[in-house]
Design a protein that fits this description.
CATH class of the largest domain in chain A: Alpha Beta
Structural class of chain A: alpha/beta
Strand content of chain A: 15-25%
Distance between the termini of chain B: 52 Å
Largest sheet of chain A: 6 strands, mixed
Distance between the termini of chain A: 61 Å
Number of strands of chain A: 10
Largest sheet of chain B: 2 strands, antiparallel
Number of strands of chain B: 2
Strand content of chain B: under 5%
Strand order of the largest sheet of chain B: 1-2
Order of helices and strands of chain B: HHHHEEHHHHHH
Oligomer: heterodimer
Radius of gyration of chain B: 25 Å
Radius of gyration of chain A: 21 Å
Helix content of chain A: 40-55%
CATH superfamily of the largest domain in chain A: P-loop containing nucleotide triphosphate hydrolases
Chain lengths: ~290, ~270
């Protein structure tokens, strides 16, 4: 029986790839993970840590060698899964990929957003509503009749998000969806993701190797060499700077700064994982010190 | 690179632009049939008038329309000349050069043929390519051929292939441009040398372009599967094409025109000189 609290439950999951020389390389080793409904989870790891493989397993693009995955109480690794079951799963768990160009199907923005709901067999009037709503949520309503080819990378990625959103999923997986974007596009996508989580209650799993992006999540899972190295809130994770550095990751700049200041005897309080929060905390700490002097 | 327009679509608003793409395809087919029904001077005159009406109703400048005829001017001229010289008519030839005789029937035939080809090209390109975007044309074809699904023809798959091909043209062009610049930066020369040398210089562009298209295709297939795509079955559409009064009116007008041509052929033809 699956805990009613957890939306995704992963038990002892392992997967390996066959190499050209016939040997097998382990990508994920005996991973167990519980993801709650409405959670905003970042999966962090450097290249080859197995984080993208994990995402693909959750959407049945890949199948594990061993272990079980339950989504919304249903075991998706069940060998008796039918094509219809996979269809139902993908309705609940949407996925946004890295390259926006390779996700868009139609030559007109609104037609592309409609692609998913059309596949679900939804009546046309409701598709229309869902498309308009999804485009509004990602802030692309004014481009509804435009061509994706004329949009920027960040805008295209927002269209891809709208395309998934229009299918009304419970959970969205972002597989390094900001990796190909410029800083402005990245910021747009991060804001959109946060909005989806906060205002629409969508469970978010964000695969990334950017620390500052992971810092904005509620919970971070650090993957290293196919194993879960750390699991906790951003504050707990960034506390262990040395452990992060060991697996080739670095803390966000502002966290590093606070650590250095603390080492110099400036007493900074509170969590400061974003530049704005960090600035506030430093000002508060400096004022306090000056007040004492 | 981004301003590239697909096909000949001319973006203005007109009664013809607003017609249902399915109706436009049917109209184009009907019109082509009518063109071949015209065989005497009265029907030819009427045909020219109809072509003029279509051009005016489409709001497309005549200059642009004439451009579509330009590529086939040679064919038109060639068939006209063949007709003039090789048609054997009755009675005395208009001109007898010994090895060649020109009869009045040949000249009439040539004029009719030129008119037909001209109207055929202008009419069908205005009804279809000039006033309909490639995507709605594909859509129209899919829905018109819908009944053929019953006999097992993959109509939906065909339309999906067309849509994706259209969608990826700008992406691949952008990519070709990037690869070309990358090869130029490595000293590739695309502009000098013999024809064969220049053709060979294209190989370093084509191979990366092929491999990247395959990568695009793989990624796209995964993304489409993740969006629950599993073929045309059980699929609904957001935009439902609706036949409006204007569509019916256009259909009626073209059918009436066809009937008029047939009537001329039957009743008036015996009294016409040609």
């Amino acid at each position: 029986m699956v805990n009613s609290d957890s939306y995704i439950k992963i038990e002892n999951l392992s997967i390996s790839y066959e190499e050209d020389d016939g040997g097998r390389t382990s990508v994920l080793k005996n991973i167990s993970l519980d993801i709650k409904k409405g959670e905003y989870l970042a999966v962090l790891g450097h290249n080859g840590s197995g984080k993208s493989t994990l995402a693909k397993l959750l959407n049945m693009i890949l199948e594990p060698d061993e272990g079980k995955i339950y989504i919304d109480g249903k075991e998706i690794t069940d060998p008796n899964m039918t094509e219809d079951d996979v269809f139902e799963l993908r309705k609940k768990v949407g996925m946004v990929f890295q390259n926006p160009d390779n996700q868009l199907v139609a030559t007109i923005v609104e037609d592309d957003v409609a692609f998913g709901p059309e596949n679900l067999g939804i009546p046309s009037a409701e598709i229309r509503e869902r498309v308009d709503e999804a485009l509004r949520v990602v802030g692309m309503s004014e481009h509804a009749k435009g061509e994706p080819a004329r949009l920027s990378g960040g805008q295209k990625q927002r269209i891809a998000i709208a395309g998934i959103l229009a299918m009304k999923p419970d959970c969205m997986i972002f597989d390094e969806s900001t990796a190909m974007l410029d800083p402005l596009g990245r910021r747009d996508i991060m804001n959109t993701i946060e909005k989806l989580n906060r205002e629409h209650g969508i469970t978010i799993i964000m695969i990334t190797h950017y620390m500052d992006e992971a810092a904005r999540a509620n919970r971070i899972v650090v993957l290293d060499d196919g194993e879960i190295l750390m699991d906790g809130t951003p504050a707990e994770i960034f506390e262990k700077q040395d452990k992060l550095r060991e697996c080739g990751l670095d803390v966000p700049q502002c966290v590093g700064l606070v650590h250095s200041l603390k080492a110099r005897g400036i007493n900074i309080e509170g969590e400061c994982h974003t530049p704005a929060a960090c600035a506030e905390a430093i000002i508060a700490a400096l004022n306090k010190r000056d007040g004492k002097n | 690179m981004k301003s590239i327009s697909l096909g000949q679509y001319y973006a203005v608003d007109s009664p013809i632009h607003r017609l249902d793409p399915r109706i436009k395809i049917v109209l184009a087919v009907l019109y082509i049939v009518i063109v071949f029904l015209c065989s005497n001077i009265a029907s030819m005159a009427l045909l020219l008038v109809s072509a003029l009406v279509i051009v005016l109703a489409s709001n497309i400048p005549i200059k642009i329309v004439l451009k579509s005829v330009k590529p086939i001017l040679f064919i038109i001229a060639f068939t006209a000349i063949i007709n003039i010289f090789w048609t054997k008519g009755e009675g005395a030839p208009l001109l007898d050069l010994g090895f060649i005789q020109i009869y009045s029937k040949g000249i009439v035939n040539a004029i009719f043929l030129v008119t037909r080809i001209f109207v055929l090209i202008v009419g069908s390109s205005i009804l279809l390519t000039y006033t309909t975007t490639p995507i709605s044309l594909t859509d129209g074809i899919e829905r018109l051929l819908g009944p053929l699904k019953k006999i097992g023809l993959p109509v939906h798959d065909f339309a999906m292939i067309m849509t994706i091909a259209l969608r990826f043209i700008p992406t691949l062009m952008e990519e070709a441009d990037k690869i070309m610049n990358a090869q130029k930066a490595r000293g590739a020369d695309f502009t000098n040398g013999s024809l064969i040398q220049r053709a060979k210089a294209l190989i370093p562009i084509l191979i990366p372009l092929f491999s990247s298209s395959i990568r695009h295709a793989l990624d796209l297939a995964t993304a489409m599967e993740c969006r629950c795509y599993r073929g045309g079955e059980g699929r609904t559409r957001m935009k439902i094409l609706k036949c409006r009064a204007s569509d019916i009116l256009a259909l009626v007008a073209v059918i009436a025109f066809g009937v008029a041509i047939v009537c001329i052929n039957i009743f008036a033809a015996p009294y016409l000189p040609f």
